[in-house]
Design the sequence.
C-alpha cells in the first residue's frame, strides 16, 4: 500500500516525533493524539484555571463576543520569535504604547496561541495604578502556530497583532 | 513554598514607569493523557492566578494557564510615585500561595 514517495514525505515528521519523544517523553504521545482530542471529563473541566478545550473561533467568541477587533497598528508592540527551537519556552512580550490616564488605559492583555488545544494562554488585567501596560511571559506552544496578542482598552475597544511562530520541537502546549 | 524572585531595574526614579520581572519556581503541570487519548483525571498542579500589589493597591492580576512554561516568568509595569513595598502572589491549583516581596526605593 505504501507508496515510496508518501513514505519519504512522512520521514521528517517521524524523525521529529522521535526526537520529541526523547526530549519531552509523554508530550509527544499527546501531540500524536491531537486531532482526536476528546472533551475533558466534567471534574477536570470544573477545576479552577483549566481552560476548556476548544477551537480558536470558540475562544474568540467566548472572550470578545461579536465586538470588532482592530489591527494593532501603533497601539502596541508584540514581540515573539519567528522560529522557536523549543516550544516549551517561547518568550512573548506585549507593550502598549502611549500615555495612560485614569480615563483611558489598557485594561487587559490576552495572549492566545491559535493551535494550542486550549488557545487562551494568559490574560493579564491592569489597573490605572500600573501607569502603563506591558507584559512579558514564556509560552508553551505545541506546534507551529499563529500567536496573537489582544489588547482591550478601558473603553472596550480591542486591538490585535498576529505573528506566526515556527516550532521545531513541540512544547506540549496544553 | 516555591521561591519567588523579583528583579527591579538598576535605577528607579520618582514618577517612572518601570518594568518589573518576577520568576517563580513551579512545575506548571500539563494535562496528561492515557494511551487511549483520554485525559487523566487528577488535580494538575499549576498556577492559575497572579496578583501584584504596590503599597496595598492592586496593580495587575493575571489568569495563568498550563500554556505557560514551567518556572513561569512575568514582566509587568509599575509606576513609582512613592517608595513602597511590592508584593507578588502566585496561587496554584493545590491552594498554595507563593509570595515574594521587595522594597522599591529611590
Sequence:
Amino acid at each position: 500500500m505504501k507508496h515510496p514517495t508518501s513514505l519519504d514525505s512522512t520521514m521528517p515528521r517521524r524523525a521529529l516525533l522521535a526526537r520529541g519523544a526523547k526530549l519531552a517523553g509523554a508530550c509527544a504521545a499527546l501531540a500524536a493524539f491531537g486531532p482526536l482530542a476528546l472533551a475533558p471529563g466534567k471534574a477536570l473541566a470544573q477545576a479552577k484555571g483549566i481552560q476548556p478545550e476548544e477551537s480558536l473561533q470558540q475562544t474568540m467568541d467566548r472572550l470578545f463576543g461579536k465586538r470588532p477587533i482592530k489591527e494593532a497598528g501603533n497601539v502596541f508592540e508584540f514581540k515573539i520569535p519567528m522560529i522557536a527551537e523549543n516550544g516549551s519556552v517561547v518568550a512573548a512580550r506585549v507593550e502598549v504604547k502611549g500615555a495612560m490616564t485614569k480615563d483611558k488605559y489598557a485594561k487587559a492583555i490576552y495572549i492566545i496561541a491559535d493551535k494550542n488545544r486550549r488557545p487562551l494562554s494568559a490574560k493579564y488585567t491592569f489597573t490605572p495604578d500600573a501607569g502603563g501596560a506591558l507584559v512579558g511571559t514564556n509560552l508553551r506552544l505545541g506546534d507551529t502556530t499563529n500567536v496573537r496578542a489582544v489588547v482591550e482598552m478601558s473603553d472596550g475597544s480591542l486591538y490585535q497583532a498576529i505573528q506566526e511562530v515556527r516550532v521545531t520541537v513541540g512544547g506540549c502546549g496544553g | 513554598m516555591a521561591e519567588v524572585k523579583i528583579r527591579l531595574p538598576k535605577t528607579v526614579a520618582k514618577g517612572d514607569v518601570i518594568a518589573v520581572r518576577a520568576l517563580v519556581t513551579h512545575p506548571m503541570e500539563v494535562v496528561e493523557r492515557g494511551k487511549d487519548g483520554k485525559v487523566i483525571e487528577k488535580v494538575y498542579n499549576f498556577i492559575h492566578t497572579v496578583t501584584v500589589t504596590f503599597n496595598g493597591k492592586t496593580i495587575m492580576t493575571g489568569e495563568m494557564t498550563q500554556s505557560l512554561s514551567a518556572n513561569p516568568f512575568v514582566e509587568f509595569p509599575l509606576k513609582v510615585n512613592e517608595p513602597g513595598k511590592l508584593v507578588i502572589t502566585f496561587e496554584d491549583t493545590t491552594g498554595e500561595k507563593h509570595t515574594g516581596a521587595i522594597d522599591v526605593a529611590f
Q: What stands out?
A: The interface with chain A takes residues 17, 19, 21, 30-33, 35, 37-39, 41, 43-44, 46-49, 54, 57-70, 72-79, 93 of chain B (CB under 8 Å). DSSP finds no helices and seven strands in chain B. The longest strand of chain B covers residues 84-92.
